[in-house]
Amino acid sequence: MSINLSKGQKVDLTKGNPGLKKIMVGLGWDINAYDSGAAFDLDAAAFMLGVYGKCPTEKEFVFYGNLTHPSESVIHMGDNLTGEGDGDDEQIQIDLSKIPSNVEKIAFTVTIYDADQRRQNFGQVSNAFIRIVDETTNVELIRYDLGEDFSIETAVVVGELYKKDGEWKFNAIGSGFQGGLAALCGHYGIEVA
To answer: What is the CATH number of the domain that holds 122?
Structure first.
């Protein structure tokens, strides 16, 4: 049975699901009905973080421009340019058994592509969620609905997987950033051109 989380809540992932190796992280959203004159393109990404909360190299930033980590522990299933339809808009597959030992946390983010030029922000986005599914059984384990807490932000850290005492846990974050993907990259130690 799926556990519904609220902001700031933490939950065990592997302790209560022994043998869990392959999970799918699904992220979804809807766009509020109004016309900004441009399509919304939201992008999910995963930042694989080391001990100081930074990406050890640029390879640990998995997004539409770098779909697969060299270890194949994190694989982005591709960019959805519209967010149309029900269910997950973008998915990221995680193999917990392949995550490199120097990675202690994986932060999942959603950003709005070209938000400033298109005058878009997360105040115009609704029904955003993250969910974690056991890929072997196709059972949803965790779901976190973000609610409508945002106004001018153009990037959101949705949640993070983190390792504690050899077990993986999930933390529902839901914190917004201004400055889009560039701000998140700076926060996680990735240099952007």
So the answer is: 2.60.60.30
